[in-house]
């Protein structure tokens, strides 16, 4: 059973999400503060986190960073902040998706299903690939630097990277990446692609400002250059 940690300081939202998620077979934990959320996640690691940014003790972005210090669990952000700057901050900190309040439960459930799909499915055999000083093993879902240290990627970062690496040298269009990684309802969210590509380059390219392997084709898409 998928365990979801819901973090929000509004009791009515916690109650509504607990009822709706449990009715659909999810195991639900709740927390009303960032501190309680980090403790709950450490004590009983969730499979997915639904996180409000406007918490009374910690900013939600700090909670994301706290989680990303030790786990790659998917994080869907809920927030009444509609500004693009807040979305960028959350995605840049490691969130996998962003839903603006007020939201419909059906929309959130669709986002949860989309993230869950990115986690599932067997990975067909594929040789280990090189990106700068890193070896990427798609079968084991590991990235290892030449010095032996492991680089952690979030599920969404993995999904985007895998799509590119399984098409070496080929242009993968923006539309195709958005559809295959996030889902058909994300056809116009090109800001997601920019944010996640920047994250991947920071983690994998020797010089993120001058990438040699994860290439942008302006206005068209992205390409993995072996």
Note down, in words, how this protein is organized.
Keywords: DNA-binding, Phosphoprotein. It comes from Micromonospora solifontis. InterPro entries: CheY-like_superfamily, OmpR/PhoB-type_DNA-bd, Sig_transdc_resp-reg_C-effctor, Sig_transdc_resp-reg_receiver, WalR-like, WH-like_DNA-bd_sf. This is Response regulator. With 226 residues, the chain is of the alpha/beta class. The protein contains eight helices and twelve strands. The chain has helices at 11-23, 34-43, 60-68, 84-93, 105-119, 155-165, 174-182, 190-204, and strands spanning 3-7, 27-31, 48-52, 75-79, 97-100, 129-131, 134-137, 142-145, 150-151, 171-173, 214-217, 221-224. It has a five-stranded parallel β-sheet with strand order 2-1-3-4-5, sandwiched between helices. Strands 6-7-8-9 form a four-stranded antiparallel β-sheet, with no helix packed on it. Strand 1, helix 1 and strand 2 form a beta-alpha-beta unit. Helix 6 (155-165) crosses helix 7 (174-182). The longest helix is centred in the middle third of the chain and has 15 residues, at 105-119. The radius of gyration is 18 Å and the shape is globular.
Task: Summarize this entry quickly.
This is Response regulator. Residues 126-226 form the OmpR/PhoB-type domain. The protein has helices at residues 11-23, 34-43, 60-68, 84-93, 105-119, 155-165, 174-182, 190-204, and strands at 3-7, 27-31, 48-52, 75-79, 97-100, 129-131, 134-137, 142-145, 150-151, 171-173, 214-217, 221-224.
